[in-house]
Design brief:
By secondary structure, this protein is α/β, with parallel strands linked by helices. Helices cover about 30% and strands about 25% of the residues. The protein folds into two domains: about 1-115 and about 295-325, Quinone Oxidoreductase, Chain A, domain 1 (Alpha-Beta Complex); about 125-265, 3-Layer(aba) Sandwich (Rossmann fold), CATH 3.40.50. Helix 2 (about 120-140) crosses helix 3. The model has no long low-confidence stretch (mean pLDDT about 95). The structure holds NADPH dihydro-nicotinamide-adenine-dinucleotide phosphate. NADPH dihydro-nicotinamide-adenine-dinucleotide phosphate (NDP) binds near residues 180, 221, 267 and 315.
Length: about 325
C-alpha cells in the first residue's frame, strides 16, 4: 500500500481523495519510482476537479509529472537509486501519475534528474517550466534575438508564464507580461518583466491585423488573446502557443500569416521526443536563476492538493506549487 490521491467515478460521482492505495492499481511498467515531489499543473487541476475529461481511466492517480528515485527496475538504463524526472506521456491521464508515493512507468519516458536541480526544484519547474522552455526554444530557433524587440508573455502569473518570464529575462529579452492580476505587477517586474499590461487589452475580439508590436509571443491563454497576439506580431515574428487558460478556440484570420509572414508554433510537452526533453531540461539548468525559481514556488502537502487544484483553476495561484507527496 502507498499514499496518494485517487480519483474514482461511481455511484457517488467523480471523487478525488487522499488515501492508501493498493499497489495493484499501478499499471505495467519496467521502472518503479519512489516519488519525492510532484506538482500541480493546470491539467492536474482539471483532472482533480473533473472540470474537463483529462482522466481517461478509473481509478486514477493524477499528477502529470514527478521526481524521485528508482526503487525497482528491469530496465538496464535505470538502475536502482537513479534520480529521475517524468513529464507527460499520458501519466496522470491514462495511467497512474505522480501525486502519490509510488509510480510505475516505462523507462523510455524518464529523463535523469538534471544535476543543476534538486528533486524539489525540478518539480518547482515541472511540466509548466519545461513547457516554458520549449516555448523559449521555439522562439530562439526561429531566430528571434533580444535586440529584435519585445516578447509578449500571456498568463504571466501562471506557472508557464512565470517561468517563461524568468528564462527570457536571464537571456536578455525585454518582456511585456499580460495578466489579469495587475496588482502583482511588482512581482512580475522582480521576475524580469519590463512592463505589465492588463490582459483585458488582449481578451476582446480584435481586428484581423493590428499595429506591429511583438518580436515574439509566448501564449498560454488561447482564444481572442492568441488571435490578437498574432495580429500584432511584427513582420516575420513568431508566436509559441501552448495553452488554453482563456479558451480552446482560435478566432483569427490568416492575415498575420500571409501579410506579415508571422509563424505560429504549436508547443506540446506531453509526447515531445526524448531529445527535445533532454535539450529543454539541459537549458533549464543553464538558463534559470534558482533564486527566481524559489521566488515563484510555494509548497503544499498531498492533503492540500485537492483544495489548491480548485484555486489553480480559479486563477488564484501565483507561480508554481510543489507537492510533498510524503506529507
Ligand atoms: P496556471 O493555472 O498556473 O496559469 C494559467 C494563467 O492563465 C493564470 O494564472 C492566469 O494568469 C491566466 N488565465 C487564467 N484564466 C484566464 C482567462 N479566462 N483568460 C485569460 N487568462 C487567464 O497554468 P499553467 O501555467 O500551468 O498552464 C497554462 C496553460 O498552458 C494551460 O492552459 C495549460 O493547459 C497549458 N499547458 C500546456 C502544455 C502543453 O504541453 N502544451 C503544458 C503545460 C501547460 P494571470 O492571472 O496572470 O492573468
Amino acid at each position: 500500500m502507498f499514499k496518494g490521491i485517487l480519483i474514482t467515478r461511481g455511484d457517488a460521482g467523480y471523487q478525488a481523495q487522499v488515501q492508501q492505495i493498493d499497489e495493484s492499481v499501478l499499471p505495467e511498467g519496467d521502472v518503479t519510482v519512489s516519488v519525492e515531489w510532484s506538482t500541480l499543473n493546470y491539467k492536474d487541476g482539471l483532472a482533480i476537479t473533473g472540470k474537463a475529461p483529462v482522466v481517461r481511466r478509473f481509478p486514477m492517480v493524477p499528477g502529470i509529472d514527478f521526481a524521485g528515485s528508482v526503487i525497482a527496475s528491469s530496465n538496464p538504463a535505470w538502475p536502482i537509486g537513479e534520480r529521475v524526472v517524468l513529464n507527460g506521456w499520458g501519466v496522470g491521464e491514462t495511467r497512474c501519475g505522480g501525486l502519490a508515493e509510488l509510480a510505475r512507468v516505462r523507462g523510455e519516458w524518464l529523463v535523469p534528474l538534471p544535476h543543476a536541480f534538486t528533486a524539489r526544484q525540478a518539480m518547482a519547474l515541472g511540466t509548466a517550466g519545461y513547457t516554458a522552455m520549449l516555448c523559449v526554444l521555439a522562439l530562439e530557433k526561429h531566430g528571434i534575438r533580444p535586440e529584435d524587440g519585445e516578447i509578449l508573455v500571456t498568463g504571466a502569473n501562471g506557472g508557464v508564464g512565470s517561468v517563461a518570464i524568468a528564462l527570457l529575462a536571464k537571456l536578455g529579452y525585454r518582456i511585456v507580461a499580460a495578466t489579469g492580476r495587475t496588482a502583482e505587477a511588482a512581482h512580475l517586474q522582480a521576475l524580469g518583466a519590463a512592463a505589465v499590461i492588463d490582459r483585458s487589452e488582449l481578451a476582446a475580439p480584435g481586428k484581423p491585423i493590428g499595429k506591429e508590436r511583438w518580436a515574439g509571443v509566448i501564449d498560454t491563454v488561447g482564444s481572442h488573446t492568441l488571435a490578437n497576439a498574432c495580429a500584432t506580431t511584427r513582420y516575420r515574428g513568431a508566436v509559441a502557443a501552448c495553452g488554453l487558460a482563456g479558451g480552446m478556440d482560435f478566432p483569427a484570420t490568416v492575415a498575420p500569416f500571409i501579410l506579415r509572414g508571422v509563424t505560429l508554433y504549436g508547443i506540446d510537452s506531453v509526447m515531445a521526443p526524448l531529445a527535445v526533453r533532454q535539450e529543454a531540461w539541459q537549458r533549464l539548468g543553464q538558463d534559470l536563476e534558482i533564486a527566481r525559481l524559489d521566488a515563484i514556488t510555494s509548497e503544499i502537502g498531498l492533503a492540500e492538493a485537492i483544495e489548491v487544484a480548485h484555486e489553480l483553476l480559479a486563477g488564484k495561484v501565483r507561480g508554481r506549487v510543489v507537492v510533498d507527496v510524503r506529507r
